[in-house]
Amino acid sequence: MNRRKVHRFFIAFLYLIAFNSNLFGQINQEDAIDDAYPYFEPCVGEVLYQSDQIKTAQGQIKEIDFLKTHLDDCGESSTITRRLALRLLELGDTNYDDVGVDLEQDKREIFEEALVLSRKALKQDTTEHLNYEQMSMAYAAIISVSRLKGKAVLADSVRLYAEKAVEINPKNDRAYHILGRWHFEVSQLSWFLRKLSKLIFRTSPEGSFQLAIEYFNKALELDNIPVHRYWLGMAYLRSGNEEEAVVHFRQVLELENVQHNDDYFKREAQRLIEKHG
């Protein structure tokens, strides 16, 4: 074989290797998508998978930009719309760490955009329990940056959408947690806020620490994770049962981290054990 033929053969061989490498990479990626999102149509699964990859490699802002760009690639997909809304809520949430935005006006803009997208997701699929859960979280976020009148106007929206979520899917632990938080927070409402709500709606939201405990326990039955256990402890603490609260705070420290803010809950649990234990 002469030098020219050897060269052509070598180039052809390199192209073959490159082609097979791309092919194997494509197959592996498709397998990865199927493993990560086995119950979604291929287009939706691919967008979600790429979203995960971008978040890991480039961060949350880049992931949000990607989701906005590809929001309608798969037609009316409430799954993609809901993920974008959720990422915006996470971006604006600085309650547990220093990640996200700092200015309240920026938070409001982000949360309002998340609420618009949450409504869009629900309109795209009114049978999906996660869309009702998402609506509940979006309203809770708006309330967190609202004045007293806004809190009074929006308070019941959080509860109503969470109740609808568990009505559709009784195994939605996050929706039970939201209901627990709703009763926990409403139980601490000031007299003035209750009066304001009654003037607007002719009714006043009624929360109960006991109902908060029941909802947090339901969430724990479905998924024993730090955030559920911590807030169950907080509900016992606010209801006056310090001994039971400390039991749950100790259990928080023993659980594996599964969410980005679990270290915060563990630090707080340790602090409360030292204070009330």
If you had to describe this structure to a student in words, what would you say it looks like?
With 277 residues, the protein is an all-alpha fold. The chain has a domain at 42-145: Serine Threonine Protein Phosphatase 5, Tetratricopeptide repeat (Alpha Horseshoe), CATH 1.25.40. The protein is 77% helix and 0% strand. It contains 13 helices and no strands. It has helices at 3-36, 42-58, 60-69, 78-92, 104-124, 129-144, 148-168, 173-186, 191-201, 209-222, 226-238, 242-254, 262-276. The model is unreliable at 1-27 and 200-204 (pLDDT under 50).
Instruction: Tell me the quaternary state.
Output: single chain
Give the CA-CA distance, first to last residue.
Answer: 85 Å
Structural class: mainly alpha
Order of helices and strands: HHHHHHHHHHHHH
In round numbers, the mean pLDDT is 82
Number of strands: 0
**Rg for CA atoms:** 24 Å
Helix percentage range = over 70%
Tell me the major beta sheet: none
Number of helices: 13
Roughly what fraction of the amino acids lie in strands? under 5%
Bulk shape: globular
CATH architecture of the domain at 42-145: Alpha Horseshoe
CATH third-level topology of the domain at 42-145? Serine Threonine Protein Phosphatase 5, Tetratricopeptide repeat
Poorly predicted regions are 1-27, 200-204
